[in-house]
Amino acid sequence: MTITVYSKPACVQCTATTRALSARGLDFEVIDLTEDDAAMTRVQELGYRQAPVVMAGDDHWAGFRPDKIGALA
């Protein structure tokens, strides 16, 4: 499964999310929404207005969600 974290600089929830993923040994890619207009458009089309947005296979969510991260491990 591919895990992508759409993030922004100086985002506390983004940092917490990537740390939790790393702590569980999960591989993920981080995409900076401030540098990738296509990525920003994609997450906005999904209805998200806050970072991080995590896409893991067919599942996706916004914000720091330890419950969802734990389910991936």
UniProtKB/TrEMBL annotation:
Highest taxon above the source species: Bacteria
Domain Glutaredoxin: start-end pairs: 3-61
InterPro entries linked: GlrX_NrdH, Glutaredoxin, Grx-like_ET, Thioredoxin-like_sf
Keywords: Disulfide bond, Electron transport, Redox-active center, Transport
SUPFAM superfamilies: Thioredoxin-like
Biological process according to GO: cell redox homeostasis
Pfam families linked: Glutaredoxin
A GO term for molecular function: electron transfer activity
Family statement: Belongs to the glutaredoxin family.
Annotated function: Electron transport system for the ribonucleotide reductase system NrdEF.
Name of the protein in its database record: Glutaredoxin-like protein NrdH
